[in-house]
Amino acid sequence: MLIRPETSNDIAAIRTVNEAAFETSAEADLVDGLRAAGVSPFISLVAETDGRVVGHILFTPVQVVGEVTWPALALAPMAVLPEFQRRGIGSQLVHAGLEACRAAGHEVVFVLGHPEYYPRFGFRRMSEFGITCEFDGPDEVLMVLELTPGAIAGRRGEVRYHPLFQGI
């Protein structure tokens, strides 16, 4: 399996992966909308097996608004074709994506995700850092990862996503 940055040739396959992995086309529409809006930074990786895109992960900017507003990234969505799930592809996408974020100089990544899944990558509850999110959700699904240890020290605020996330 190969994990690599998306290319323009992957756009239809990425849509297919997101539509197959989720109950509605909302995530696929979100990815297409963020790409079309020119949202940057836009870190988008695909997992490819035998020339076929079978997984996708996306990282886009968020703002943490508090006494001082500071930038970070959000992981959303991450998807694997159902017939390729439970083979470690999602984990490989997360590891590669976080490394790409780190290599690009980003320090903090947020995710609204499964509390049994994301902590294995080092994600912790936002509430441990005094950070809230504009979206409601149980405390255990609102998570953050410091790519640079201590990057959040002394920072607080509310995570605010790109407006296109409001439709999810």
Keywords:
single chain, 168 residues, alpha+beta, Aminopeptidase, 9-stranded mixed sheet
Task: Provide a compact summary of the structure.
This protein has helices at residues 11-21, 26-36, 89-103; strands at residues 2-5, 43-49, 52-65, 70-80, 108-112, 124-125, 131-133, 142-146, 157-160. By secondary structure, the chain is an alpha+beta fold. The chain has one domain (2-167): 3-Layer(aba) Sandwich (Aminopeptidase), CATH 3.40.630.30.
Q: Low-confidence stretches at least 5 residues in length (pLDDT < 50)?
A: none
- Helix fraction, binned, reads 10-25%
Q: Which descriptor suits the 3D outline?
A: globular
Largest sheet: 9 strands, mixed
Descriptive notes:
With 168 residues, the protein is an alpha+beta fold. The chain has one domain: 3-Layer(aba) Sandwich (Aminopeptidase). The protein contains three helices and nine strands, in the order E-H-H-E-E-E-H-E-E-E-E-E. The protein is 22% helix and 33% strand. Strands 1, 2, 3, 4, 5, 6, 7, 8 and 9 form a nine-stranded mixed β-sheet that branches.
Question: What topology emerges from the helices and strands here?
Answer:
Blueprint: E1 2-5, H1 11-21, H2 26-36, E2 43-49, E3 52-65, E4 70-80, H3 89-103, E5 108-112, E6 124-125, E7 131-133, E8 142-146, E9 157-160
Parallel strand pairs: 4-5, 7-9
Antiparallel strand pairs: 1-2, 2-3, 3-4, 3-9, 5-8, 6-8
